[in-house]
Amino acid sequence: MSDQKGCVFCDIVAGKAKAYKIYEDELSMCILDIHPYTKGHCLVISKRHVPWWHELTDEENASLFNVAKIVSNKMMETFKPDFIFLYARGRRIPHTHLFLIPTYSGDVLDRFFNALENFQESPQMLAKLKETAEMEEAARLLKI
């Protein structure tokens, strides 16, 4: 478990920085995020300093996602969200971490992903607006 100078996650793993530890195994640790989007928002971090999850060993990767699964199941049981949002980061803090965020219909993340999915699908939706039937309906609705 490498200790990279100035890495807050390495300091947490080493016990040098305060964290609200939720769960850990030999290779990974889950902590509460100190800047939560929702109650229970957690981070699963690798104990070894590695910037990107795909650079972890197979064993470390299995541990990381197993810890995420264990904690997500507890979140589902405790907070009863619609789903647990999971994504991997490593850019701002170059130490592998997975975000686990209990997410509810209509909250900021749900709205963000609905907008993103809508954007992804928009070329098809916009093309449909050009169809004769759609144009005729719009004209009929707007005709003064």
Task: Describe, in plain words, how this protein is organized in 3D.
This protein is an alpha+beta fold and 144 residues long. It folds into 2 domains: 1-104, HIT-like (HIT family, subunit A), CATH 3.30.428.10; 105-144, no CATH class. Helix content is 42%, strand content 19%. The chain is built from 4 helices and 5 strands. It has helices at 8-13, 58-79, 108-129, 132-142; strands at 21-24, 28-32, 42-46, 83-89, 97-103. It has a 5-stranded antiparallel sheet, covered by helices on one side. Strand 1 and strand 2 (28-32) form a beta hairpin. The chain is elongated and about 70 Å long. The protein starts with 7 loop residues before the first helix and ends with a helix. The mean pLDDT is 89.
Strand arrangement across the biggest beta sheet = 1-2-3-5-4
Major beta sheet summary: 5 strands, antiparallel
Give the low-pLDDT segments: none
CATH architecture of the largest domain: 2-Layer Sandwich
CATH topology of the largest domain: HIT family, subunit A
- Gap from first CA to last CA: 72 Å
The multimeric state of the shown protein is single chain
The fraction of residues in strands falls at 15-25%
Layout of helices and strands, plus pairs?
Blueprint: H1 8-13, E1 21-24, E2 28-32, E3 42-46, H2 58-79, E4 83-89, E5 97-103, H3 108-129, H4 132-142
Antiparallel strand pairs: 1-2, 2-3, 3-5, 4-5
Describe this protein with a few key phrases.
single chain, alpha+beta, HIT family, subunit A, five-stranded antiparallel β-sheet, 42% helix
